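Researcher: Re-running this chain for the archive, since the previous output was lost when a drive failed. Same request as before.
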Amino acid sequence: MLLSHNFNVYPETIPPLSTEEFALTFVEGLREYTKIKCRKVDHPHWMAEIIFSRDDFSPQQVGELCAQALVKKRQEQGVETDAETGIMYEILILGGVKTTPATSNAPDALQPGNWGVDVVETASGADFLQVIAWENTITQHPPENIFKVELKPKN
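Model: Regenerated structure tokens:
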């Protein structure tokens, strides 16, 4: 599972994460799960790789763990948070299995059959999903080949 970062929030209140910080968020945030491995990757789009067995976790479960790790990172940074959800903006974890040929032969490029996951921090999840035509995208794929995790503030 390869992760990318879409940072679509207010940089004056939420600091952007470098590639290293982004990858470290998941390396550290998922460390307690001994059956999950995470590493930084060297690719222009993909920033981290998570390796796990489908016998132990579903991609959706790993996506939920990624969302929790990102919330924890933001709390550690002192980003203002909602008491119930832990965030004051929206986090989307959008995953899909690559079904088209690889666009690159780079070692860390997404390959057919592997999961590509966009980790999104945004002021409006609904607006972001509309811009990327998420509903249209998901109708073109079997349900087992996609997942979406959404975290929103309660207030």
